[in-house]
Design a protein that fits this description.
By secondary structure, the protein is an alpha/beta fold. The chain has 12 helices and 17 strands. This is Alcohol dehydrogenase. Keywords: Metal-binding, Oxidoreductase, Zinc.
């Protein structure tokens, strides 16, 4: 089958002869991919920011597909079902899954102490191949895969596998109250969703900070947010303090994670010397921009082992820090309702639609922010097979 193939840092190839996946466990399903996306988190892998990303792996944790085969124990899915597959690989029975912490499943990635299993996200995420391929093996098929509701646009369905619930959880974690000022660092797809959903929770002012002008313009149109380029400021923290009458934002959301920029110290130690897990500039700014007693929500991805952050400000300001991988299954009923009711149309953020055969170019464009790309979609050649 065709599949994306990781060959090394910034080296993506199309594998035309990857063996098709097989049922390995009674609770497995095999899904023929109909749509998949490239995520900013895939770029962390592409850029070599995530440990134990092995040559030969297929990325892609956002995908929809048609069930082609099921194991003997699968009861809720049948061949022919068209499903969206959350990026969390979750067993559904461990103590964390029972708390609806599906991103922290204890069984799907037993070698990791922090995270559960994820599709297509290195061996730190369990080593599961992802959906930038024609077929995927889906473990625990009765737990997270969800039949796509009748009438739902397929592009909205695939966005429900990660970016929509991740953006929603970023706002939810912020504990946003009516009248709050919310600052979102990062105008990528997750930041755009977080900014848009901030209004759903009652924010009366939403500010987005980034350094890419076309994405800032996108944030103004899609998320109805004020949007500013931090490269045009002497100090983004001072700018935000002035913008909030020196009070600070009620909630700050870090939607950037380890691939930040804007601080020479962070860039040298995080990306150059690899002395910390990437560049934590956005988190640094978030902690220093939020008000005393405010909330910082981290949804941008950071990896092991640690990062330089202003712990003194965190403690002395009485800041609440909330973070986690999105728990997609928990959020799906609410988000499906938002989409089917027309309150949000997530597919507006998809700017590029490419055949799977062009996956290498898609990564290069997305990484280089070429052609005003915001969110690239991949379509396998067998997507419409009978």
């Amino acid at each position: 089958m065709l599949a994306m193939n990781f060959r090394g840092v910034r080296q993506i190839r199309l594998d035309r002869n990857k063996p098709e996946p097989e049922i390995k466990h009674p609770y497995d399903a095999i899904v023929r991919v109909t749509r998949s996306l490239i995520c900013g988190s895939d770029l962390h892998l592409y850029h070599g920011r995530v440990p134990d990303t092995r040559v030969g792996m297929t990325f892609g944790h956002e995908f929809t597909g048609v069930v082609e085969a099921v194991g003997s124990g699968v009861q809720k899915l049948k061949v022919g079902d068209h499903v969206l597959v959350p990026f969390n690989v979750a067993c559904g029975t461990c103590p964390h899954c029972k708390q609806e912490l599906y991103g922290n499943c204890n069984e799907s990635n037993p070698e990791a102490t922090a995270v559960g299993g994820f599709f297509g996200y290195a061996h730190t995420g369990g080593g599961y191949d992802g959906g930038q391929a024609e077929y995927v093996r889906v473990p625990y098929a009765d737990v997270s895969p969800t039949k796509i509701p009748d009438g739902m646009d397929l592009e909205n369905a695939v966005l429900l596998t990660d970016v929509v619930p991740t953006g929603y959880q970023a706002a939810e974690q912020g504990g946003i109250q009516k009248g709050d000022t919310v600052v979102v660092f990062g105008a990528g797809p997750v930041g755009l969703m977080a900014a848009r959903f901030a209004w759903f929770f009652g924010a009366t002012r939403v500010i987005v900070i980034d350094h890419v002008d076309y994405r800032l313009e996108f944030a103004r149109k899609f998320a109805y947010a004020e949007a500013y380029n931090f490269r045009e400021m002497k100090d983004p923290v001072l700018f935000l303090k002035k913008a909030t009458d020196y009070f600070g934002a009620d909630v700050c959301i870090d939607a950037v994670g380890c691939d930040g920029t804007g601080s020479a110290l962070q860039t040298i130690t995080g990306k150059g010397l690899l002395l910390q897990a990437g560049d934590a500039t956005a988190l640094h700014w978030a902690i220093n921009s939020v008000k005393k007693g405010g909330i910082v929500s981290i949804i941008g991805v950071y990896g092991p082992p640690w990062n330089l952050v202003p712990v003194g400000s965190l403690m002395n300001k009485g800041i609440t820090l909330r973070a986690n991988q999105a728990s997609v299954k928990r959020l799906l009923p609410k988000l499906i309702d938002h989409i089917m009711s027309g309150r949000i149309n997530p597919k507006e953020i998809i700017t590029h639609r490419l055949p799977l055969e062009e996956v290498s170019d898609a990564y290069r464009m997305f990484s280089g922010k070429m052609d005003h790309i915001v969110k690239p979609l991949l379509i396998p050649p067998r997507a419409n097979a009978a």
